[in-house]
Amino acid sequence: MLIFAGIVAGLPSAFGQAFESTRQGDLSLLLLAMIAIVAVAVIWGVVRMERAQRRVPIHYARRQQGRRQMQPQSSYLPLKINMAGVIPAIFASSILLFPASIAQWAGQSSGSQLVQDIALMLSPGQPLNILLFTLMIVFFCYFYTAITFNPKEVSDNLKRSGGSIPGIRPGEKTADYLDGVVSRLTMVGAIYIAAVCLLPQFLVMFANIPFYLGGTSLLIVVVVVMDFMAQIQQHLMSTQYEGMMKKANLKNYGKGAR
Questions:
Q1: Predicted local confidence at residue 257, as pLDDT
Q2: pLDDT tens readout for residues 188-228
C-alpha cells in the first residue's frame, strides 16, 4: 500500500507534464492518444491475467458423517496463473536499482568508475538490464510460489477430506501432478509479468514513446487495487454473514425441544 500510495501521488504531475508537453508541441496529440490506448490495453490485460485461474477438478467420494451419508460431490481447486503477485517485479527492480544508488553515493571519488560503468550497463533500455530483469522475475516468481504453495500439503488435505483428482492417485502422485501444473502456470505468469514490466522500455527504444507510467508501476497499481477490493468484499460478506447469524438467533435453536 505504501508503494501504491507513492505511485498514485506522482500521477497528477505525470499527467500535467504530458499535457504540458502536448501544449508546447514536444508531444503530438496523436502520440498522447496512443500512449493512453496502450495504458488501457495493458490495464485490461493485467486484470484478465490476475483473474485467470486453472481449475483442477476434485471429486469427493461417498462418505459417512455421523448418521448422515454424504453423496458424491464434484468441486475444483482454483490455481491462479500469477500466484506471486507483484513481489517479483518489486524485488527485481529494487535489485537493479542498487548499483545506480551506489554510483550516486560514490559520486566522482576515486575507484567509483567501475561502479558507474556497471550502473550504466544496468540502466533501463540496456540489453544487460533487460536480460537480468527477465531472469530475476522468473526466479522470484518460482521462489515466492514455492514458499506460498505446498503441493504435498494440499495433497494431504485432499486425501484427509476424501477428495481426489480424477485419473490421479491420491498422495504422492497428486502432489507431483499439482507441482507440474503450478510450475507451468508460474512460467506463464513470469512471462506475463516480464512482458508488462519491459513494455515501456521497448516502446521507448523502438518507437521513441515517452511512457510516463512505467510497467512495474502500472502492474503494482492495478494488482493492489484488485487485492484491496477483494479484501473489502470479503469483509463485507463476513459482516453480513455475522449479522444474519445474530438475527437468526441460531444459538437458541433446539433448546425448546429439550
A1: 45
A2: 999 999 988 888 887 777 666 655 556 778 888 888 888 88
Residue 74 lies in a domain: yes
- pTM of the shown model: 0.76
Cell numbers 433446539 correspond to 254
Task: Quote the CA–CA distance of 152 and 158 in Å, as a whole number.
Answer: 10
What's the count of helices (H) and strands (E) in the chain, helices before strands? Answer: 9, 5
Torsion-angle region of residue 85: left (phi > 0), alpha (psi -120 to 50) or beta?
A: left
- One-letter amino acid of 51: R
Please indicate, yes or no, if residue 22 is contained in any of the structural domains: no
Return the CATH number at 146.
Answer: 1.10.3370.10
DSSP 71: P
Q: E strands within the chain?
A: 53-60, 63-65, 68-70, 73-80, 163-164
Contact of 226 with 88, CB cutoff 8 Å:
no
**Spatial separation of the C-alpha atoms in residues 96 and 199, rounded to whole Å:** 17
The domain tally of the chain equals 1
Is residue 170 in a domain? Answer: yes
Residue 177 resides in a domain:
yes
pLDDT tens-digit map of 116-170? 777 777 777 788 888 999 999 999 999 999 999 999 999 998 888 888 888 888 8
